[in-house]
Write a structure and sequence with these properties.
Blueprint: E1 3-5, H1 16-35, E2 43-44, H2 51-54, H3 60-67, H4 73-79, H5 85-108, E3 110-113, H6 134-144, E4 151-155, H7 162-167, E5 174-181, E6 194-198, H8 204-222, E7 226-230, H9 248-265, E8 269-272, H10 281-299
Helix pairs in contact: 1-10, 5-6, 8-9, 9-10
Family: Belongs to the histone deacetylase family.
Protein name: Histone deacetylase
Pfam families: Hist_deacetyl
Length: about 300
Amino acid sequence: MLKIAYDPIYAHPLPAGHRFPMLKYELIPAQLIHEGTITEANLFSPTELDEATLLLTHDKAYWEQLRDLTLPPKEQRRTGFPLSAQLVEREIRIAKGTVDGSHYALEHSIAFNVAGGTHHAGRNWGEGFCMLNDQAIAANYLLDKGLAKSILIVDLDVHQGNGTAQIFEHEERVFTFSMHGDKNFPFRKERSDHDIPLDDGIGDEEYLALLKSTLPKLIEKIRPDFIFYLSGVDILASDKLGKLSVSREGCKERDRFVLEQCKRRGIPVQVSMGGGYSPDIKDIVEAHCNTFRMANELYF
């Protein structure tokens, strides 16, 4: 069964300027249920992540500032969010959804988190609407529990996974791959194990050719026993922050290719949704829903 982490707190109410991007967290599961792709039985609501697991990834001092709501104003501005207890609860539930999803992926080959992909959060900082790095937390959890020995993180959000790269810069068991806009946020990039910086305006043909010539070789080289996939849809031409020119069909083909690579090799994969900032919310929701539909088609 396809298991999907979702909790109403994912759509945490924020000041007016932040509410629009949060709508998708309610609309994605609603659309998938409406069309019959999933039922309520596919959804699970994560609890709060325990501190011991969180501290496998994030520095204690940074976490305590989040937990105690004492993060300095300058650091709060860097996250893009005003700090609140509900926001911190949202972050730790998202991270727990990815940890739990990793267990479901080991059992069912694939699992999703409607939110997540908080790849700008480093060991001791939050940035770009990311405060805790859900896939990094889950990767360290799998390593700590002996549930995986070699992990590949495939980050295809339009923005570089700088926090993920920093967290794993000295961890040989985790290989970070980020394919992202070269002239886009974050403007100070970290070094992933394999980065592909993309020129503005790149379209379907070139984007997919780069992915298809790279990912299979990385998998063969690394031979991971678990993959995390960050499937941001901010690569769309319609995205107001993305600067690329990938169509919705191109984005869907991207998802098909990545998931087929995992399924063909029998590698469990956990998928977090990442960014999407098209002006029309329907474009965001439809592109994200395509990722779920593709998984349902390939696996179930």
